[in-house]
Amino acid sequence: NAGVTQTPKFQVLKTGQSMTLQCAQDMNHEYMSWYRQDPGMGLRLIHYSVGAGITDQGEVPNGYNVSRSTTEDFPLRLLSAAPSQTSVYFCASSNPAGGLNEQFFGPGTRLTVL
Amino acid sequence: AQKITQTQPGMFVQEKEAVTLDCTYDTSDPSYGLFWYKQPSSGEMIFLIYQGSYDQQNATEGRYSLNFQKARKSANLVISASQLGDSAMYFCAMRAINFGNEKLTFGTGTRLTIIP
Known about the structure:
heterodimer; A: mainly beta; seven-stranded mixed β-sheet; about 50% strand; globular; B: mainly beta; four-stranded antiparallel β-sheet
């Protein structure tokens, strides 16, 4: 099992550019989510999905778009990047029905917006 | 709404000593779970330990234990016999326990440095 994978590891964008951060998991988890980590602020939830075809907003959704067409993949789209979106992005997955309490995190994507 | 407070931005501890990382929380949910994650300098998030609000016993996982005091709304992480590899950021987190909810609320973290 690869667990949760994220690509790319690093990305530099110019203001106004768009891009998609990829996230995939091979554990057949129903729940997937995106967090951003900023210095001194811990991790904050951007968007989440409880299953294919179902997504919802987290604490800081503005400027981001998600979709979930398969159980495995949960991409995060930045429509028009802004310097305020410079952050480290983590994807996570879990199986609420599986009885385990752990959320599995990907290795993160470090994004810089100039 | 849920809130996690970690009041220690940084700690320095001598190797082999025990260390306690503080975490207090606030929630109106009757049932909830508390988590600790470790983030080494390499950046990944490593799950350490979980405590359910209705668990009778404090959780333990190897050298990690969670000192859960429900009335005080605290969930401190205790690391026994600290090692150099314990140097990292540590995050306390919580979520409400209801069907399908996996949303985590994180604290701001504590940077732990183990001194040889």
